[in-house]
Design brief:
The complex is a heterodimer.
Chain A lengths: L4 E4 L3 H10 L4 E3 L5 H6 L7 E4 L9 E4 L2 E5 L4 H6 L1 H6 L1 H8 L4 H6 L2 H7 L6 H7 L3 E4 L3 E3 H4 L14 E7 L3 E8 L6 E10 L2 E7 L6 E2 L1 H9 L24 H19 L4
Chain B lengths: L4 H5 L15 E7 L5 E7 L1 H5 L3 E6 H7 L30 E2 L5 E7 L2 H8 L3 E6 L6 H4 L15 E8 L1 H9 L3 E12 L8 E7 L4 E6 L4 H12 L6 E4 L15 H13 L3 E4 L2 H7 L3 E12 L5 E11 L10 H8 L9 E9 L14 H19 L3 H8 L8 E2 L5 E2 L4 H11 L5 H10 L3 E10 L10 E7 L5 E5 L8 H13 L6 E5 L19 H27 L6 E4 L2 E4 L5 E3 L9 E7 L7 E10 L6 E11 L6 H20 L32 E4 L17 H18 L13 H15 L1
Parallel strand pairs in B: 1-12, 10-11, 14-15, 20-21, 27-28
Antiparallel strand pairs in B: 1-5, 2-4, 2-6, 3-5, 7-15, 8-13, 9-10, 9-12, 13-14, 16-17, 18-26, 19-20, 19-25, 22-23, 23-24, 26-27
Classes of the chains: A alpha+beta, B alpha+beta.
Chain lengths: 267, 757
């Protein structure tokens, strides 16, 4: 790790001010990706602005068909929250599948979304549920928020404050763990929302994406067979030493079917 | 609970990186990011000026010091009298780098951070050379050459057995089964990263090392050969060691470089490896390609076997590379009576990290090759895999059995082990379980392995321990073997306490103590030998202590020694019934005896049976059941033995299902440089192991023990791979090499189904 300044922000406003006055500063929101990156000297921020303790970023509440999760909520908070389990059980289940207990006790939803790792779990839920990302400046629809590999709509110095989900009729997530990292080799989140079926895929491509062909197929029928004909262009998926594009394309289909089976209450 | 457990589970263990000395400096290594390149220039000027930097060392310094010739142990007569070609390896690369991660400079500074900062200021200019990564390619004509001294990248060509006899056996065979397998390159990844702190004493020009090690004797000899510093001028200190698996055995170039720094700066110099450095630079394991063929007669009896090996040793010969040839020929016949055997070995150098001993050091590799061949032969001939084994076992009455490659198996009850395992695994009930899996859409397979391995023998002239009796009647055991988690403090204390008939709490074990490490001879802990070697001499020494003390007691009691009986820590005169306690005999000073012995190989053997369930949708394999019946001789501590077997089985499972060091074949870059890509086994991988002991005491040592540290791996590699092969065989999948990742299995299933259509 390079030498840097650590600042524990006392308020969101102070954090924003620090980021504004130090262009090379970075937000620390759990640090489950950032800290290993720093240890390998792959990043060299001038300051770390720690927002983990900010009360403004905590809290999970459901009201009027909407579930709000503070950006500094740990994965374990979400996985074990009675409120989340009642409103969107698939979201609680997804949070419980992230990393290992150590990661779930430190990593946060805001940190995960701002990082937008192409194999992270939360982006699938946020995009699949069509959630809204609130920041200290504005609100951003999920469809605009994710912009490919580690890229988001966040501007310099912008901090995620909470994520608001419209509670769907039903939702389910199926994940195939990467055998080494535990990230998603493919994760598929399916939600039956008031605006229709949404299918979001993480892990398989260069960033989380909506599988539109599956959405339109499922809007006609929720039978697993409906997915058979849904087109999926394998050439746009990732290929590496662990898995070919074809294998990832297969996993997307298989995980989609399994999510669908969960959705219909079948194992 | 073991004696060492309270300390280890409460975080009170003391590992190599926990040591600090006053005035110490910190080292950071600059490592090559090229697989094969000439070092055109090395600019250290800016780094030298960096605040806190005390010194910088490069390959030129290593060459000047003469730290260029590591020991190698491939001391076999090669084919046609060929001598091993062992390349030089300066402790810091000089002129040329030959693998990604090779250290070429070392910065020494006041803090580790300053050393690392300065290291980034060193500018290296390379002239890139084409690398060669795959060992078979390295041996092909026209391949890039690593060392001028190793033409054709061929370090040694060797053979074992009788080629003509094998040829004749194949000529009259009714059936020949052929299978080429790869036992993949893996990174040992012990829990404790490597660390070393070296201090130089100018008074007598000696060195003290605080280092994670597997015992003092082998490391000291290798360090001495590498540096030319006499063994009596090196001291090694280690308390707790967090895993070894063979990776801690060799003298590493980093330790030699630290010696240079300690002497030059006059300050102790410390280095702690990162996990990524460990994956790239701690010696790797396995890395063998074996082309096998098994000849059978009409009745399925084995007539002959041929194994052609390509052993990838990486860019330099590690000091512990001999196992790949020695151990694999020692046990080449496996548990079978195969009258004709022949093995050829081509030891190749490649632009990769050196390969060394790794839990089994060739034993699991040869067991894997044989057991996969046998199961495949059974499938080809339509014979039950257990029955084909039963038919070819070395029968109990044939022991001691001299194998065609020259070793002598002591004794094994192979049918007994097999029948117990078949029962434990409910072999007969398997079709029902398979049908049940099919109903849920899963592919099920069962795999069996019946294996034997040579353990216990070491290269030291003898094993010694010293027992020191004090006035309290407590005994201290001094040994030069070293636990890396094995539990020596428990096992050796039990042996001594049992032999003396005193409570175990009165026996303490000191490993590689500074005051004893030059006095006592013995083997390091490796090759499943410590209970056979150090353990047996503990027993011998305890008997010797009794006899020595009997004389002292007789004087004390005023009778002849023959009139004194010993029991439970006290001598009693037969005549007067007067007694004297052990401790009383050490009233004027400790009583000390040295026990010694030299022990040959013991041959633990076992039958492992695994069942796997494969999800054809994802290719993911789950271990559905695992049974292991092992004959490891007399058992001293059942919990420790179970722990060894479990650990070995899981380590094998890790290799079969995921672990694999991958280098890019074009660039030679390491593709699995962290746990994001290097797939370590997780706790849930093996959920339950049903085990049973089937002991036949060994006569090699007075304890009747056999080695156990590596048995789990030796059994689980072939048992698990055979189970996956069995599950996929009905689909027409001919062969799959490890690691059997979900992606690989899924592709195989898909391709087989495509072919079937």
């Amino acid at each position: 790790m390079y030498a840097l300044n650590y600042v524990k922000a006392r308020s969101l406003e102070e954090a924003a001010r620090m980021l504004a006055s130090h262009p090379e500063a970075k937000v620390l929101a759990g640090g489950m990706t950032l800290v290993p990156t720093l240890k390998q000297r792959l990043a060299r921020p001038s300051h770390l602005v720690d927002i983990l303790q900010l009360a403004e970023l905590r809290g999970i509440a459901a009201k009027g068909g909407r579930l709000s999760i503070g950006a500094a909520s740990r994965h374990d908070d979400v996985a074990t929250s009675v409120v989340v389990k009642k409103a969107i059980p698939a979201l609680a289940e997804l949070a419980g599948l992230i990393g290992d207990p150590q990661v779930r006790n430190m990593g946060t939803i805001g940190g995960s979304l701002a990082n937008n790792d192409p194999a992270a779990d939360y982006p699938a839920a946020v995009l699949g549920l069509g959630a809204t990302v609130f920041t200290n400046r504005r609100e951003i629809a999920a469809d605009e928020f994710f912009q490919g590999l580690f890229a988001t709509a966040l501007e310099e110095g912008e901090i995620i404050t909470r994520v608001v989900f419209a509670v769907p009729k039903r939702a389910a997530y199926a994940k195939f763990h990467h055998p080494a990292s535990g990230y998603a080799m493919a994760g598929v989140f399916i939600a039956l929302t008031r605006d229709g079926v949404r299918v979001a895929v993480t892990g398989a491509g260069p960033g989380v994406f909506r599988w539109k062909a599956a959405e339109s197929a499922l809007s006609k029928s929720l039978e697993p067979s409906a997915l058979e004909g849904a087109a999926l262009d394998a050439s746009e998926l990732n290929q590496d030493i662990h898995a070919s594009r074809d294998y990832r394309a297969n996993l997307v289909r298989v995980m989609a079917k399994r999510a669908l089976a969960k959705l219909s209450g079948k194992k | 609970m073991r004696v060492e457990d309270p300390r280890l589970v409460t975080g009170a263990g003391r590992f190599a990186a926990d040591w600090n000395l006053p005035g110490q400096l910190h080292a950071h290594f600059v490592r090559s990011d090229r697989a094969h390149a000439e070092i055109v220039s090395l600019e250290t000027g800016a780094a030298r000026k960096h605040p806190g930097v005390r010194a910088i060392f490069t390959g030129a310094d290593a060459v000047r010091a003469g730290y260029t010739k590591p020991m190698h142990t491939l001391a076999f007569p090669g084919k046609g009298g060929m001598q091993t070609r062992a390349p030089e390896r300066p402790a810091l690369a000089h002129g040329k780098v030959r693998f990604v991660g090779e250290a070429l400079a070392m910065v020494v500074a006041d803090t580790a951070a300053a050393a690392q900062d300065a290291a980034e200021l060193i500018e290296v200019q390379y002239r890139e050379l084409a690398p060669v990564i795959a060992p078979e390619q390295a041996l092909a004509s026209g391949a890039p050459q690593l060392h001028e001294s190793v033409p054709g990248n061929l370090s040694l060509e060797a053979e074992a057995g009788d080629a003509a006899a094998v040829e004749a056996a194949f000529a009259r065979a009714a059936h020949v089964t052929r299978l080429k397998v790869e036992v993949t390159r893996v990174a040992p990844n012990p829990m404790e990263p490597r660390a070393c702190l070296v201090a130089h004493e100018p008074q007598d020009d000696s060195y003290t090392f605080h280092v994670c090690m597997q015992g003092v004797t082998t490391l000291r000899r290798q360090m001495s050969v590498y540096t030319g510093v006499a063994e009596d001028r090196m001291r090694f200190v280690a308390h707790d060691v967090g895993g070894g698996f063979g990776q801690r055995t060799p003298a590493y170039p980093e330790y030699c470089a630290l010696m240079l720094a300690a002497k030059d700066t006059g300050r102790p110099v410390k280095w702690v490896s990162t996990r990524s450095e460990g994956i790239a630079c701690d010696t790797h394991g396995r890395a063998n390609i074996i082309d096998g063929a098994l000849a059978l007669d009409r009745d399925g009896r084995f007539l002959g076997m041929r194994l052609d090996w390509v052993n990838d040793m990486g860019s330099y010969l590690s000091p512990a590379s001999q196992g790949h040839v020695r151990n694999t020929s020692t046990c080449m016949t496996g548990v079978y009576r195969i009258p004709a055997l022949y093995a050829s070995y081509r030891v190749a150098l490649t632009n990769t990290n050196p390969v060394s001993a790794y839990r089994g050091a060739g034993r699991p590799d040869v067991a894997y090759a044989i057991e996969r061949l046998v199961s495949r032969a059974a499938a080809e001939l339509g014979i039950d895999t257990a029955e084909l084994r039963r038919r070819n076992f070395i029968p109990p009455e044939a022991f001691p059995y001299k194998t065609p490659t020259g070793s002598t198996y002591e004794y094994a009850d192979l049918p007994g082990v097999l029948e117990k395992a078949l029962k434990l695994a409910d072999w007969r009930g398997y079709p029902k379980r398979r049908a049940r899996s099919e109903k849920t859409g899963k592919l099920r397979g069962i795999g069996i392995a019946t294996v034997i391995e040579n353990t216990g023998a070491g290269q030291a002239a003898k094993d010694e321990v010293e027992l020191e009796l004090d006035a309290r009647g407590h005994v201290t055991v001094h040994t030069v073997s070293k636990s890396q988690g094995h539990g020596h403090e428990t096992t050796l204390a039990m042996i001594v306490a049992d032999a003396l008939g005193i409570p175990r709490e009165r026996v303490a074990v000191r490993q590689c103590g500074e005051d004893r490490q030059h006095r006592l001879q013995g083997n390091h802990t490796g090759g499943s030998r410590s209970t056979v070697g150090a353990g047996s001499v503990c027993h011998i020494a305890a008997r010797k202590l009794i006899e020595h003390c009997r004389g002292l007691a007789a004087l004390e009691l005023g009778v002849e020694p023959s009139q004194v009986d010993y029991a439970k820590g006290a001598f009693r005169s037969r005549e007067s019934k007067r007694a004297v306690k052990l401790g009383e005999l050490a009233g004027t000073g400790p009583v000390s005896v040295v026990g010694e012995g030299k022990f040959g190989s013991t041959f633990p053997n076992g039958c492992h049976i695994a069942e796997v369930e494969i999800d054809p949708g994802t290719g993911a394999a789950q271990i559905a059941s695992y049974c292991a019946v092992d004959d490891i001789g007399t058992v001293i501590n059942h919990a420790i033995v179970e722990g060894q077997l479990h650990g070995g089985v899981v380590m094998g499972a890790g290799q079969i299902f995921g672990e694999h060091v991958v280098y890019d074949l074009e660039s030679g870059q390491l593709m699995t440089g962290s746990f994001m890509d290097y797939c370590m086994p997780r706790a849930g991988m093996v959920r339950a192991i049903r085990g049973a002991e089937h002991p036949t005491p060994s006569k090699v040592s007075p304890l009747g023990v056999k080695g156990v540290g590596e048995s789990g791996c030796t059994g689980s590699l072939p048992a698990l791979a055979n189970a996956v092969a069995d599950a996929l065989r009905p689909l027409g999948v001919a062969h799959l090499d490890m690691p059997l990742t979900p992606a690989k299995i899924w592709h195989a299933v898909r391709d087989a189904r495509k072919g079937g259509n």
